[in-house]
Each structure stands twice: as structure tokens, then as C-alpha cells.
């Protein structure tokens, strides 16, 4: 798909974050979004609460993926995401979150059990992983040091895995005391791994690890203590930042994704790359800024827009390409105030996947599934890279749409950039932007409507199609049978 970027090279402007100055690990997006949702009431399951309808993993199902693809699915995204999950592009689906208290008891996510998602995943050979969460350093310290709490947690986790036919556990403990991040944590993870491998044969144990070692971590030892680490390769900039900037810079500055893989996790990358999964963001960061320049001083943090929001907004503004970090961003103005959004696109994520592949890591993953909703861009990048030869569920949303009058005044011609994986498109038209008529199908990238009223204004939109499904609708364009062309870039 063709995209337009404004290339901006700021060779003298340093990329930095507030956290690098304080030496403290920032709150990850997992932590921030958990805080935002933890006070909401837990909703009951849409299925049998005991999980009697859950099917086990289809052991004979052959996956075509060439790498691990590990996606977190938060419970607040469960209902909206489940219709858009492409299970043939996942090896692991991590159910977030099973909150653990200081005594080792584990609470279920909202709507649990997700029987429809678990069964759909298992039928495709996708492993479903429970994500055990705690972000309180005192509670974590108790779990690491108190034998009763620790053993209760182990038993509880085993019971959850067996009851709901899950395939492993991912431990997401964050905010630990510096003194707890080394041998204490690693011994805990080794004990958990040994216990699970013994009690639940075939189960996997992993840890959600930091992108930067801000102190106390023995990351090589951590990798040895479990099956693999999911690197949270994001939150380099965030709500705490004094300037705008990329949440997941591939390059530039003192800390970036390349540094994470080759320096922070150097021993693991060199000796056991199969123990690392590079996590990438399906979200961005929005600030009010002093002006429209890259790395502008921030006035206020606004929010973390999800990919589906950021890409739609970015299509309405000029997307800038930051050459230092190799990520896109855009700026817009409301009144006298400037705002910026930095996020990752399909292209910038592909560069991160290049790094993971070049270093022969176990695979890649994302926070979070469902943050792209009906957009197929990010799925299609995974398909091209890790499942070549398969047909996607959805073609990309069409862009570059041009409509113009032609013929003898009763015809409108439509041209578009035919997206990857599309065989043709359906064209819809109306006079009022709402009552669109039955569609016409056109193979290729050009079509037309004939027999229209002369001198009338018409609204048109298209959907691309392949052998499996239809894309989302394009933006609506307008033209008259005698007007000049309008183009959407």
C-alpha cells in the first residue's frame, strides 16, 4: 500500500526520556491500563463459568507460522476484539489479567472464561496463556519471600491451567524493589518453571521483561530461569516525558529497541535468542505540545490512542517520518493549541520485525490484540512475513481514492490504489451520503458508474475484496458528473 510521509531528520536533537534521567523504570502500558480498568466491576462469563465447554489444544493442528507470535488480549478488549482475531497468525494468546494478591490467590479476568476465544484458538493450534499480574512491590516481595504465599500461588496457577485447559503462564510482575529483581526473582521463576513442567507437562512459563535494565535485573539469569521472556519493547516515551517522542524507537538516542536487543539483553541474544520475544506497541501517545516540531516540549499528556485511532487520524493529516527513531508521527492544531501523536505503523513495525528476525529471536508479540479492530494492516504484515503463501481474512482498507466525471456527463470514473491481497473492489454510490445503492464489482483498480443524472452531486465509497472477505469501507468521496476530480491521499 502506498503511503505518504514527510521525512524529518533531526540529526542534532537527542532522543531522551525522563526515566533515563531518574534511573527508574517507568510504568509500562500494561500497568497504566491495568490501573485504569482495575476498579471496574468484573463481568460474568458469557459461557459456563466452570469451563466445562472448553476444548483442549488441538495437538495435531499444524501451524504455518515461521516464528512465535505472542499477543496479549486484555479483558477490556475481549468483547470488541474477538470478531477480528486472526488465529492463523498467532501462536500464543495471552489472557490479561489474572491478578495475584500477596497471599497467592488469583482472580479471574472479566468475562472469564472466554470459552469462544479459547476454543477458536485451540482449534487453530494456538496456545492460550494466563497472565499473572501484580504491580505492587510489597505484594511481590511477599510472593517472592514467603513460602506459604509462593506455594499457594503455584497451586492456584496449576488449578486455573487445569480447569480451563490453558497452556501456560506469563508472569507480569512490575515495580519490584531493585534488590528483588536479581537472584530472588530468578529463583522464584525457576521454581515456578520446574513446578509447572512437572505438574502440567507441556506447559510454558514466561516473564514480561523490561526494555531497559534500570538496575538490579539479571536478565541472562532470568532467561535461564524460565522458558522465554516477552520483552516489553515500548514506553520509551510516555505520560512522564518532557518532550514528545516515539514510544518504541528502533534507533536514536541512548536507549532504543536496537539497544534493548543488542545491549540490555546482549548475553541472551548472543547465546539463547530462542528465549526472547520482542514485543511491539499497537498504540501511541498523544500530548499537547508547545509547537508542531518533532520532540517539542510537552504541555500536557492526553492519552494513549490505539492503533485504529492513530492511523485513522494520521490519514487525515500529513504523516511525518522521524528518521532518528524510524517511526511515524503527526501534529495538528485546535485553536491555538498544538497536539502530537507518535505511534507505530505497519512499516515501522516491519523494521522492528527485521531486527527480531536478523537476531533469530524466538519471535515477536504485541500489546495489545484488538487495538487495531477491523484494520488489517498489522495482520497483513505478520502474514507476509511469518505465514507466506496464505490468504488473509481481510484486504487492507483502500486508499488513494480518486473520483471524477467522465463520458458524456452521465459517468463517474473511480481509481484507487488496490491494496495488497485485494483482487478487486465493490463500488457504492448515493446522492445523500447515507442511502448507498447496491454495489458494482470491478476487478483491478478502476471502475465506473454510468447512467447517472447530469450535473448532480454523488457520493461514492468502495470496499476491496479477496477470496475470503471484504475490507473496511474507504473514506466517502464526492464528485459531480461535470466536476473536477478530488483525491484522498
UniProtKB/TrEMBL annotation:
Keywords: Glycosidase, Hydrolase, Signal. GO terms for biological process: oligosaccharide catabolic process. Gene3D superfamilies: 3.10.50.10, Glycosidases (3.20.20.80). PROSITE patterns: GH18_1, GH18_2. Residues 1-17 form the signal peptide. Residues 67-389 form the GH18 domain. One of its GO terms (molecular function) is hydrolase activity, hydrolyzing O-glycosyl compounds. Belongs to the glycosyl hydrolase 18 family. This is GH18 domain-containing protein. It comes from Caldithrix abyssi.
Amino acid at each position: 500500500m502506498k503511503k505518504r510521509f514527510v521525512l524529518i531528520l533531526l540529526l542534532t536533537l537527542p532522543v531522551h526520556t525522563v526515566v533515563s534521567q531518574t534511573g527508574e523504570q517507568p510504568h509500562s502500558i500494561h500497568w497504566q491500563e491495568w490501573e485504569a480498568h482495575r476498579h471496574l466491576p468484573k463481568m460474568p462469563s458469557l459461557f459456563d463459568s466452570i469451563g466445562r465447554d472448553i476444548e483442549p489444544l488441538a495437538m495435531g493442528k499444524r501451524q504455518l507460522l515461521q516464528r512465535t507470535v505472542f499477543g496479549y488480549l486484555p479483558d477490556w478488549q475481549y468483547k470488541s476484539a474477538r470478531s477480528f482475531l486472526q488465529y492463523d497468525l498467532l501462536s500464543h494468546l495471552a489472557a490479561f489479567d489474572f491478578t495475584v494478591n500477596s497471599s497467592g490467590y488469583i482472580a479471574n479476568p472479566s468475562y472469564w472464561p472466554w470459552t469462544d476465544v479459547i476454543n477458536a484458538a485451540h482449534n487453530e493450534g494456538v496456545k492460550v496463556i494466563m497472565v499473572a499480574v501484580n504491580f505492587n512491590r510489597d505484594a511481590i516481595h511477599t510472593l517472592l519471600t514467603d513460602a506459604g504465599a509462593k506455594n499457594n500461588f503455584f497451586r492456584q496457577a496449576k488449578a486455573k491451567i487445569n480447569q480451563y485447559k490453558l497452556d501456560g503462564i506469563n508472569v507480569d510482575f512490575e515495580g519490584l524493589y531493585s534488590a528483588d529483581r536479581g537472584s530472588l526473582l530468578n529463583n522464584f521463576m525457576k521454581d515456578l518453571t520446574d513446578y509447572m513442567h512437572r505438574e502440567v507437562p507441556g506447559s510454558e512459563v514466561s516473564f514480561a521483561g523490561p526494555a531497559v535494565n534500570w538496575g538490579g535485573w539479571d536478565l541472562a539469569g532470568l532467561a535461564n530461569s524460565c522458558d522465554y521472556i516477552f520483552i516489553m519493547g515500548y514506553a520509551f516515551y510516555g505520560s512522564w516525558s518532557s518532550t514528545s517522542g516515539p514510544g518504541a524507537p528502533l534507533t536514536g538516542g541512548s536507549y532504543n529497541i536496537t539497544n534493548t536487543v543488542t545491549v540490555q539483553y546482549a548475553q541472551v541474544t548472543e547465546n539463547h535468542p530462542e528465549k526472547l520475544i520482542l514485543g511491539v506497541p499497537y498504540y501511541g501517545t498523544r500530548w499537547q505540545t508547545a509547537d508542531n516540531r518533532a520532540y517539542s516540549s510537552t504541555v500536557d499528556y492526553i492519552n494513549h490512542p490505539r492503533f485504529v485511532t492513530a492511523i485513522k487520524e494520521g490519514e487525515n493529516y500529513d504523516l511525518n517520518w522521524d528518521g532518528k527513531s524510524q517511526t511515524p508521527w503527526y501534529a495538528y492544531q485546535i485553536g491555538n493549541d498544538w497536539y502530537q501523536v507518535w505511534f507505530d505503523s505497519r512499516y515501522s513495525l516491519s523494521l522492528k520485525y527485521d531486527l527480531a528476525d536478523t537476531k533469530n529471536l524466538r519471535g515477536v508479540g504485541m500489546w495489545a490484540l484488538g487495538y487495531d479492530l477491523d484494520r488489517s494492516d498489522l495482520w497483513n504484515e505478520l502474514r507476509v512475513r511469518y505465514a507466506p503463501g496464505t490468504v488473509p481474512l481481510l484486504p487492507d482498507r483502500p486508499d488513494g481514492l480518486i473520483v471524477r466525471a467522465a463520458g458524456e456527463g452521465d459517468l463517474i470514473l473511480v481509481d484507487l490504489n488496490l491494496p495488497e491481497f485485494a483482487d478487486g473492489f465493490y463500488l457504492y454510490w448515493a446522492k445523500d451520503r447515507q442511502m448507498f445503492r447496491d454495489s458494482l464489482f470491478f476487478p483491478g483498480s478502476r471502475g465506473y458508474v454510468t447512467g447517472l443524472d447530469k450535473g448532480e452531486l454523488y457520493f461514492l465509497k468502495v470496499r476491496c475484496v479477496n477470496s475470503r472477505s471484504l475490507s473496511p469501507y474507504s473514506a466517502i468521496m464526492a464528485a459531480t458528473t461535470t466536476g473536477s476530480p478530488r483525491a484522498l491521499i
